[in-house]
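Problem 12. The chain below contains 180 residues. Write out its predicted structure in token notation.
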Amino acid sequence: MDYQILRSERKTVVIQVETDGTVTVRAPKRCSFRKIDNFVREKEHWIRTKQEEIAVNRKKFSEKKLTEKERESLRQKAGILLGERTALYAERMQVSYKRITIRDQKTRWGSCSTAGNLNFNWRLVLAPREVLDYVVIHELAHRREMNHSAAFWRIVEAEMPDYRKYRDWLKKNGSFLMEM
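Solution.
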């Protein structure tokens, strides 16, 4: 099995299967190649399963190339839906915001400025509603904590106790949505 090794000051060995199916092994600087290779062999079934999952997801999403007209329609739908969901959660979370902008970003799902302006990626309308809600809650939580501290995550969790499931969905499937 082919894989790339990235060494750093870390203490453990971890394996990442990238969205293109390639395998990256992150390892401590002093870890022997033999130990790394044995670890990869132990995890080979898990790696192959992940690669198959990625291939299935890529096929599922790549069959849905959108026309410019469809993209514009979805962008408008995103503006309406994200406006509604943001208003709902802002009231529930007792936070305010200024302006919402819908963007065509390639790497971000949302952002919050210190002035209280929110930006969202139109592709969120292609994700399950709970995923969209997670991003809205995440950005509104920044209205109280402009960082990703433990306090920030407690705010997110108070509003959406199972947020990790939706954050993981984005990590797993987000790159495919970005290609649409």
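Discussion. The longest helix spans residues 68-93. Students who got a different answer should revisit the alignment rule from Section 12.3.
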